[in-house]
Amino acid sequence: MSKTWFVTGASSGFGRELAALLLQRGDRVAATVRKADALQDLAAEHGERLWVAILDVTDGAGVRKVIDRAFAELRRIDVVVSNAGYALLGAAEEVGDAQIERQIDTNLLGSIQVARAAIPHLRQQGGGRIIQISSSVGQAAYPTLGVYAATKWGVEGFFEGTIPEVAPFGIEVTLVEPGASRTNFATSSADAADALKVYDQTPAGDFRRMVASAGLAMFPGDPRKVASAIIASADQSPAPKRLTLGSDAYALVHAALTERLAALEAQKALAHSTDVGA
Known about the structure:
This is NAD(P)-dependent dehydrogenase (Short-subunit alcohol dehydrogenase family). This protein is α/β, with parallel strands linked by helices. It is 47% helix and 15% strand.
């Protein structure tokens, strides 16, 4: 049975792959982009099954206006995919205030605003699915990706609290945690601070050199396979809370959670000792 999807950031990366695959299989897609001509080829091929709107997710009022219009015109939207985002690269000392604010406005506040605008409509129609594109870096982090990681950790924290709030209304949520995939995310969809020489012989410099020399080996994920897995997850019931995609994502998240759990276990006695009466 065909579905109607709402996808932000559909002009490139996972958003573009999702829109193309969904249209190919006969679904209806409401896609948001920042440039009017970004999906002209898909519109020419699929006609009225593709609904397009211009949206900058840093504009909270604009987010609500576009989502309200999409639900009004399409009557029902089964799956809302919050995908718009980009990566800011740089050590904490290197990134500028404006860069940090834009990163948070786009990745964190933008994702929260999309969810907040969609939830009333999903509730009123009796349920639906929200798929939030997070990252494996939402469970761990690399040097020079601290601010980017902060936005993804923030998104995951937001949904940890929101998921039980909306569950009684039949709204389910999946956090997608992909690794590095062969999209344009790391090039046209990234912002980089000017590197300071003092970091050359630190983990930040080591990470930058690794990225520069690794080539495609640094990006094992197949964007189309990732998009296909995301689409398939919408048919799973109950919805998976998290969807970790990519061998690098699995390795990073597994190592981070294992280390975190071991550290927690080592502090068990200390934690209990601080209770009243202990």
